[in-house]
Amino acid sequence: MKYKILELLKQNTAYISGEEIGKTLNITRSAVWKNISKLKEIGYNIDSVTNKGYMLNSSSDILNEYEIKCALKTKNIGKDFQFLKETDSTNEEAKRLSQSQTKNGFLIVAENQTKGKGRLGNSWSHSYKANLSFSIVLKPNFLPNDITSLTLITGMAICKAFRKLGISAFLKWPNDIIINGKKAVGILTEISCEIERINYVIVGIGININEKNFSEELKEKATSLFIETGKEFKRIDILNSVLLEFEEIYGSFTEHGSFEPFLKEYESLCLNIGKKIKAISKQGTIYGTASGVSDKGELIIKSDDNNISIVSGEVSVRLQDGRYI
Ligand code: BTN
Questions:
Q1: Is there a domain that residue 217 lies in?
Q2: In angstroms, what is the span from residue 91 Cα to ligand 1's centroid?
Q3: Cis check: omega of the bond before 261, within 30 degrees of 0
Q4: Of 1, 264, 269, 280, which has the fewest beta carbons less than 10 angstroms from its beta carbon?
Q5: Are 51 and 88 in the same domain?
Q6: Which is it for the CA torsion 14, 18, 21, 23, positive or negative?
Q7: Which of 57, 55, 44, 49 has its CA nearest to residue 21?
């Protein structure tokens, strides 16, 4: 019942009386009051004024099953989803579920992660109620080798979604999203495969949205959409924008079966290109200039007149002010 009341409140921009809500939903005023209290308890910001009634304050930034269902405008990605108040890691949860039952496009969103995972064995810290952590399960037909390109197109989708919101975001190869020289998003792609076949891929995304302060340790490197724009964002809107963009680009990627058509756009969003970089990869530590990205998604580094392509690794880029990010 509380979500029926919520729906009514969302439809009305003015106050709506308890009597009117009761009449519409065929419940008593006391039941209305009880359910309004429940909504307030789970975080909805509802003004109650004597003789006027109730009004939903549109600034409520709430993540729950109901909000996700209402907000997602995608066709396939996130059609089936699970919302968890807390889990160890949405990627781990996605893996557990994928042992048996997940469909292509299944989405897992968590309000809190107790053991969020980052790339290269790092951890990913997550502020309760400020940020967004989610994982998408994909069951593509392409070969395990194409996974590097999938990671790159995921970064592109997020970058493009941010730019549509007026945020000047760039990609740092392979897929960090950088705003004003600091990282705002991390992507962790994990795969379960056989030699010639992918069982499933999990694309885990962590977005720093309304975080206001980072620890001393992270301050130099991390940022959030709030810090960069001075605006608070509704996490659910960011989730929808990112998934819409992802659905489009992922659909086109699987249709083409190659990263080649995306190369130019990727390079135009990628801040590594033309810059001096340091790359720590399986080939060792390489200093050089990032000269481009190959049609397989590898970063091409020009070093001592040789071109070296790397498929994964930790890359630092030297900015104009001499800082490495
Ligand atoms: C990185 O190191 O940049 C990758 C960070 C990825 C974090 C996200 S949050 C949602 C998903 N679940 C995890 O445990 N990690 C990813």
A1: yes
A2: 8
A3: no
A4: 264
A5: no
A6: negative
A7: 55
Site to probe by mutation for ligand 1, drawn from 95, 124, 182 as the one with most ligand atoms within 8 Å of Cβ, is 124
What one-character-per-residue DSSP string does 21-45 give? HHHHHT--HHHHHHHHHHHHHTT--
* Residue 324 placed within a domain: no
Ligand 1 site residues, Cβ closer than 6 angstroms: 89-91, 113, 116-119, 122, 124, 133-135, 176, 186-188, 204-206
Residues 149 and 254 in one domain: yes
Residue 116 alpha carbon, nearest atom of ligand 1: 14
pLDDT in tens, the chain (325 residues): 899 999 999 988 899 999 999 999 999 999 999 999 999 998 899 999 998 999 998 777 899 999 999 999 999 999 999 999 999 999 999 999 998 878 999 999 999 999 999 988 889 987 778 999 999 999 998 888 888 899 999 999 999 999 999 999 999 998 899 999 999 999 999 999 988 889 999 999 999 999 999 988 888 899 999 999 999 999 999 999 999 999 999 999 999 989 999 999 999 999 989 989 998 888 888 999 999 999 999 999 998 778 899 988 888 888 777 778 8
Ligand 1 atom having least distance to the Cα of 91 = 12
Q: Are residues 202 and 304 in the same domain?
A: no
Give the number of domains in the chain.
Answer: 3
Token pair 């490495």 in the structure block, residue: 324
Task: Tell me which residue range forms the domain holding 240.
Answer: 65-268
Q: Edge-to-edge strand order for the sheet containing 132-138?
A: 81-87, 107-113, 132-138, 198-207, 182-193, 176-179, 169-172
Residue type, 231: K
Q: What spacing in Å lies between the alpha carbon of 110 and ligand 1's midpoint?
A: 12
CATH of the domain at 76: 3.30.930.10
100 and 26 together in one domain: no
